[in-house]
Amino acid sequence: MDIWTEHSEQSVAHLTVAGEAWLASASEYPSSLRALWEARPWAPTVLPCGRAFDVISLPALFGRRVLDELWSSGPGCGPVAEYRGRTQLFVQPGAAPRLRTLLAWEEWARDVPPLLCHGLGDAVTVPPVRRAPDQPTAPGAPIGRWIVAPDTSEPWLPSAGVLLWACVRAARGVAQAPQEGLGGTGGQGSGPTTIYPRPSGKDAAKGAPLAVFDFGSA
Q1: In this structure, what DSSP letter does residue 47 have?
Q2: How confident is the model over 189-214, as a mean pLDDT?
Q3: Fewer C-beta within 10 Å: the chain N or C terminus?
Q4: What is the C-alpha to C-alpha distance for residues 168 and 182, in angstroms, rounded to an integer?
Q5: Contacts of residue 23, Cβ cutoff 8 Å, sequence gap at least 6
Q6: Would you tell me the crossing angle of helices 160-176 and 60-73 to the nearest 10 degrees?
């Protein structure tokens, strides 16, 4: 079990009642959805975007770099999930089409790998609110998992601009130092370990450490 897997398992245990309420608010029928979760807490759920959040889906490794950039240079992140080998960042409603436009317009955005921007009219599969005891824990498991689980009724969510700059910095940082570990000081396998605190309401920089990513082993 690598560091990414070991520490990201903590996130499901910390998905709170308030976090569940916020997640359910994305649905047109939040009370019915929460009743379904009571009966089937181990099942993933398909939720519409555009009401409570938009979702930006990134290639898994690039997603780790962007998360590192958000925490090291910016305000942090909101909820984050992993599904089918991709990293899903929950962002402000309306941020998906805005980011899509910025990436198509800005010349320097050509360095950023293709992103999937899910906004109004789209739906995404989110991980279960609880992890079944026998659920696979390997990265990329089809059922998905929370990396940073919702834990408040008003989570801080990045804007399109915040995420755009994080993506560009992450892409350019790797391009400028291809011979080094990801952000490391030496050769392969020497990348640093980064700790991402849990977001807490509008102040995403506070909270206990939640997920640890060892870029050197990626």
Answers
A1: E
A2: 38
A3: N
A4: 15
A5: 47, 52, 79, 126, 129, 150
A6: 110
